[in-house]
Records
---
Amino acid sequence: MGHDIFEITINAIKLIVCFLIIVQAVPVLVWAERRGSAFIQNRLGPNRIGPLGLLQLAADAVKFFFKEEFAPANAVKFLYYAAPIFALIPATVAFAAIPLGAPVQWNEHIFRLQGYEINVGIVFILAVSSLAPYSILMAGWGSGNKYALMGALRASAQVISYELALGLSIVGMIMTYGTFNLSEMIQAQQAPLSYSLLGFTLPLNFLPAWGIFYQPLGAILFFAASFAESNRLPFDLAEGEAELVAGFHVEYGGFKMLLFFIGEYGHMIVASALMVLFYFGGYVIPGIPMETLNQWALEHAPDANFASLLAGLITLVCFLVKVVVFLWIFIQVRWTLPRFRYDQLMDLGWKTMLPWALFNTILTATLIYVAHL
Amino acid sequence: MTADVFLFWFLAIVTLAGGLTTIMITNPIYSALSLAFTMVGVSALFVTLNAYFLAGVQLIVYAGAVTVLFVMVLMMFDLKHEVTAFTRGKISGMVKSGIVAVLAGILVGSISLTTDIFSKSGAAPEAVIGGDTTKELGKVLFSKYIFGFEALGILLLMVAIGAVALARSKGGTHAKQ
């Protein structure tokens, strides 16, 4: 974790902060979702408590804390109580591996603005998020309720199906940049855009070399699949109110329910962050290379340490702004599109997105082969 | 005791406990869940060996896909009768233990006959510390072991086609009219 006490302390604090970011972003997101949906539907939404209704969620959290603690009579107690806790793990652990800003150089220490640096970051994040169905299945089975079990089976089948398309849509990205490392991927996206094939070069200097310009199909597939992965509309078959009440969490109430909520929003945050990382240049400000930013920070800070910290914070803000844009798209889509039927969902996953992701992989491989001839 | 040694023993014990729970517990759901737990433990052990890519793939394929399907299928059964049918009998228990012992013996024997990892004389191969083993793994997989790799792929394809053919011919929702 580090070489001396200072470094170890900072690294430990970073882990806690990464966890708190996920947990604390959720109330704000829920507020944005409720207010946003209200405006989309020509309503006002929660606006009574606090400025703009911002304290509504704090009030809700207090209410959830003081709700009666109960378990259904048919429940398998161990699984019933374990499931909400397991719902938190995949999103928070995956989020900690995402670089949120440029590394900060403080004397001889280098602190990365992420929980931990992993060389195969993409594989790690995919691996950890692939554990998400367990908490759904545990909740569905542990509740001892038919609707909960059906919702859990639907949700986990959906998550497993779309994991394939999700994984395959990133393969093109990995081949383009030739690395699994998220930081290296951001480095590769800093240069101005230029296509070169068979000796011809098409420079488009006014655009950054973002992944979306190299992998537009992959980006669309990845974004669509991440909707399914986080069980959001139009893929929220897990909680078809008309036929399944609330799906796998129908028997949960109070803070246990809130933990599932945090898990779902955590998945959203991770998906948006990955979208920014893979296809929209990560934490780098578009049009301003890191060297220029570091130079500017050196001129405006008392010494090199603070300059590095300043640059790190600016890139962090830039990253968060990009992530917020995608989070808003998640919310907007939820209140715009209707829900799929279950067979439509499976057809889309297996017969449309998977073949297109495979096609994208093969096309990328062929183009890279031709380009390196 | 250094951190690495502690980590190894901790993970080894936890993984083995998960594996033992898988075969000794009577509730199939818990059994499948502890199988998933064992997979996570094995993956963590890969991490301590610096095999990050293998660890990730282990999680994605085994814990994230295969065992999830086990759990899903198990949840659709009414398991109450099979619990008793499965755990009765001392003689059958002894037969089972004997079969497991024979299998373990065959495994250890075949490993020791084909490789020399059990002889202490050979020094351990040079470990790649902190490096990126993914590239080397891919190169070896697609050059030296290409035949086995492709053969496994064809085998899996055959299994998938066979499963679909069986499911379609023997009734069920997708049966041929």
---
Amino acid sequence: MSDVLFSLGMLTFGEFLQDLTNPLLSFLPKALVVAVMAAIICGVIGSYVVLRGMVFVGHAVAHSVFPGIALAFILQGSLVLGGMIAGVVTAVLVAVFSQNRRLKEDAVIGIFFVAAFALGIVIISTAPGYSGSLESFLFGSITGIPDSDIYVVAGAGFLLLGVAFLLHKEFVAVSLDREMARSAGLPILALDIVLYVMVSVAVVVSVQVIGNILVVALLVVPAATARLLTDRLGWMMFLSPTIGALCAFFGLYLSWAIDLPTGGTIVLLATAVFLLTWVLAPKHGLLGKWLASRSVDDNDDEPHLEDAAPPQTLRAGEDEPAATLR
Amino acid sequence: MTETTDTWNGRADTGPAVETSAEEAVHLSDGLQVEGLAVDLGGRPVLRGVDLSVAGGELVGLIGPNGAGKTTLIRSVLGLTPVREGHITVEGQANTRARRGIGYVPQRHEFAWDFPISVHDVVLSGRVGTIGWFRRAGVEDYRATREALDLADMTHLKDRPVGQLSGGQRQRVLVARALALRPQVLLLDEPFTGLDIPTQELLTDLFRDLASQGRALLMTTHDLAGAMHTFDRLYLINASVVASGRPGDLRDAEIWTRAFGFREDSPLLNALGVKDV
């Protein structure tokens, strides 16, 4: 196995672990820690994003942090802090403007995120030699993460997960039915703003590694994958960060091993997991639906056949189902 | 008025949920009183001079054409729409104070049925406003949830994800969620829309039971023919109350043509059992 990898010019997993402890490559474990923490944060917050159908809001916030990061870059300030402020300002603007029923939320978002992104490009173009830093903003970079960012990301993570825990029942009630939540006396606008702010913080802490363009994937893909695997919100909010963290870890390994861009590799890996789940998920996947329809057919034809029989025989061989599907 | 009471007693005797011993103990809600309500939406007058009342034990229908202000009336009672004039009293208190004691059952399409959540947890979510900030549901909340599930006859489905429920079951979940607040006044916005007749009849039995236990129920509907034998009393509204009373008192075709703009030879008038007087 390792021979094959070596002949492909690819590092084995063992070599990757060695590199992680190599003091000359100290940026690597830092990138790994930040990527995994970012994936966990995005996995939890992303569950709300996916269930609320506010993926587009995630896009908007992701793009709107750009001017803040650009400004911080020029002023030599903290990129994370700059991005957070810009993201929060845009999030609040979107939340407030969408309360107007004449303008649908997507139109408001379309206006603000493009404007914010344009502002970011204008700001960063004033910096000399900006094209290199522009690329690392947009597509992420695993080198050059300062030590302080690890603490900022960890702190932001604890804060976000804490708020999510404390406001969970309110977020659920608003997601289920805004009218009912309003009649129960919940402050809908304030809760929306809090959620948007949480999304922007989650985005900002992930921008470093994944990049501005791809960061939405970390919010959406693990949560959507988890949704296919369960009908329980609690499980979904556990599975989503787990999937995200695994994708971040192995995505970083692959990108290091084959020398590919880190953000792109993590996102593609997560997408592959999503597609696989979409086909193979027990209840909501293609296979699960096909099995369900098949076991119904079997019951009609041969009532003495046990319900569980067909799925069991199929599960025995792991590669069988894909073959039968074709 | 005496007739209404008789009808109610007659129904209560045959009703399955009310036992004779419990019947004496039934606490009749003070219900809902709306006086001189006027509401504007976007500068346009939607409701004018609406007087309406629902007593405990009553199942009252609110009917009217599209845009007549049915939903606006319900939202006003809930305190969700600014009121221009008028008084709304719930359980003897101004509705702004008592609004957390009102059970609200919105239209089914308002609810995110694809959300990964069980029937039990949806019903529990009805208490979100009373549990309070940063707190988790307590024993009392779980007890109220269990009672509400029982009342709506959904206990056997409590662990089912809501996405897997039929239309009638979904309506019951929303009713149970409203009941989790133990309200004495229930407002239902078009619970019958999109449901077949047998399902509507089962739900009517449920609403009838809930009323006979002393609650006041106000419900909007588009099913006029059904309304004529479902409700104790009816309000026909079109910006203001066009007519109200027991279904038997609303046999004048002119009322219906005025409220709904039916033509005088509309076949619907026959279906309603309404004739020119």
